[in-house]
Amino acid sequence: MLSISALHANAGDKPILKGISLTVNPGEVHAIMGPNGSGKSTLAQVIAGHPGYEVTGGSITYMNQDLLELDPEERAQQGVFLAFQYPVEIPGVTNAYFLRSAYNEIRKAKGEEEVDPMEFLDLMEKKLKLVDMDPAMLHRSVNAGFSGGEKKRNEILQMAVLEPKLAILDETDSGLDIDALRIVADGVNALKRPDNATIVVTHYQRLLNYIVPDFVHVLAGGKIVKSGGKELALELEQRGYEWVMDAA
Amino acid sequence: MQTSMQTYTDAFAAASASGGSAPAWLTGLRRRAHDEFVATGFPTTRNEDWHFTSVTPIAERTFKTPKVGTGAASVTDALALAAGESGWPRAVFVNGRFDSALSALGALGKDIRVATLPDALTEGPDWVANHLGSLAAFDKQAFTAFNTAFVNDGLVVRVPKNVKAPAPLHIIHVADASAAGCVIHPRLLVVVDANAELAIVESFVSTGSAEYLTNAVAEVRIGEGARVHHYKVQRESAEAFHVGTLQAHQSRGSLFHSFSYATGAALSRTNIYTKLAGEGAEARLNGLYLVDGTQHVDHQTFVEHIAPNCSSRELYKGILDGASHGVFNGKVFVDPEAQKTDGKQTNHALLLSPQARVDTKPQLEIFADDVKCTHGATVGRLDAIALFYMKSRGIGADAARALLTYAFAAEVLETVEIDSLKDALEAIAFQRFTNQVQR
Description:
The structure holds two protein chains of two kinds.
Chain A: E1 2-11, E2 14-24, E3 29-33, H1 40-48, E4 54-62, E5 65-66, H2 72-77, E6 80-83, E7 90-94, H3 95-109, H4 117-130, E8 141-142, H5 148-162, E9 166-170, H6 178-190, E10 197-202, E11 215-220, E12 223-228, H7 231-239, H8 242-247
Parallel strand pairs in A: 3-10, 3-11, 6-9, 9-10
Antiparallel strand pairs in A: 1-2, 1-4, 4-5, 7-8, 11-12
Helix pairs in contact in A: 5-6
Chain B: H1 2-18, H2 24-40, H3 56-59, H4 75-81, E1 90-94, E2 97-98, E3 113-116, H5 117-123, H6 125-131, H7 142-149, E4 155-159, E5 169-175, E6 183-184, E7 187-192, E8 197-206, E9 213-222, E10 227-235, E11 241-250, E12 255-262, E13 267-276, E14 282-291, E15 296-305, E16 311-320, E17 325-334, E18 342-351, E19 357-366, E20 372-380, H8 384-391, H9 397-413, H10 419-438
Parallel strand pairs in B: 1-5, 4-7, 5-8, 6-9, 7-9, 8-10, 9-11, 10-12, 11-13, 12-14, 13-15, 14-16, 15-17, 16-18, 17-19, 18-20
Antiparallel strand pairs in B: 1-2, 3-4
């Protein structure tokens, strides 16, 4: 599904990613862990097409296409979804309008009919339950005045509505208490299917108790320095990151 | 400029000679206004109030008086262009002249008096004499003097005490092709007595692309506990010039709510002035302007806090594309008597192109010690991260820009209390953003 090869990317003149290679197949859950500043979030954002980073080398192939040739909206229309570490507030645009616009754009890209506001509200009823959100949230401006937990749940709600093939969760656990963490994780797990894949970017092992990864990769200094199974996450939790970095 | 002034003086002499039936006080008012206009002349950018707005394009032209009865606008034109409901009572002026065939005032009910200025002069000359020109001072105010010198047609509205208007009064000023090269001087006099309420939607529209000057003056006297809402919708032709001054006077416990929506004209200036003369009065002044190309749009507000315990709230937003230029000048004066004044002024501009420009000048003159007055202004561009966020959800670049631009405007459009008008203004705005991003 996704094949990253020798990826290099800069923020301004500063190299952040220095040769990342990673393959993700349908049905898999990959965890990307690493200390602060290792490039985890940069990798997530480069996959989504963030304009603040410049790819200086390597390639990303997604569903047999050159992903780097696609605009961010084209990537989304083809099933790439990034749950933001810092979801953006958009005062003046309601959640309902925003979600329906996104949903219809993605349907259009798939050659499906757009849905009207009433049909959309019916659909939303189920999706809201998945993340235990109050329907009143639909009529509030996107993320404006939301608590940290509400923002993260709103990201998962968007994911539930847009049903991506490749979901990337960027530090979705940060700032969540244990109850919110469970709700978010349950939502993600409920959306898991044999034909989609998830990349979980996290600093801590905690989230991986709930979203169990097939593979764990440790990112440090812009490179993947170690890969393993889910037990690697537990080892990192106990021993910290230094031993991996020293070994690398 | 000398020649244009001479032409206006000649036109004034001709109008005075033909208008034999006017009462002496009115000819005197016009004469004083004419003399003031000639003595003051059009303002230059050395005048502090016009520092960012050059009216040279107006001063260097000579605008004619429109010929009577040349208007060819239909009611369909007028209603399609003006943002309002067809069922609202309406007064339609075509090229500055009241058009009784296009107007329909019945829905306002029998308690509310609406008349043209000539009819009002016949029915109640003393009442008109007491009010006309009593608020809109023309001392050193060239455009108000210009209007007053030529005051002829216009609308007079009186709402007696305790009467609440059942629907908004829609005043539609239409300029058609025969307005080309002309100056139109709309005049509005509104007196709302104690505890009465009235909403006015005043639309300035054009059926074509003629170059003309609209020079409007409105006087609004608001009695104790009365509430007046004034929505100004300025959608003049792209070649037109528009100067409009509204002067309100508020008694104790009254509300004046003004909303100025400006998208038209090559050069426009809207003055919204109110005097909070009675204790506990409230002024809410809001506005939204959308301009592109080489349009110039200027808003000046002046809130005079004369009495204690009054509040004023101002929120103006501008969206500027192309090489357009926006100006906001907000003056707040607090008299030594106006203790416990609560004033807040906010002004935000969104620049959609690198060539667009905005100048903001808040002016606070506070002479009382126990007051709360704040002002804030921002000039920004569309947030790149918010655009990326929307795109990352599949929303295309153009739609994302339009949605964010709309979101910027939404806060101030929310202050429009008439739902159908809000929807209409939203639709006009949204269409404009969409067109903008398509270019």
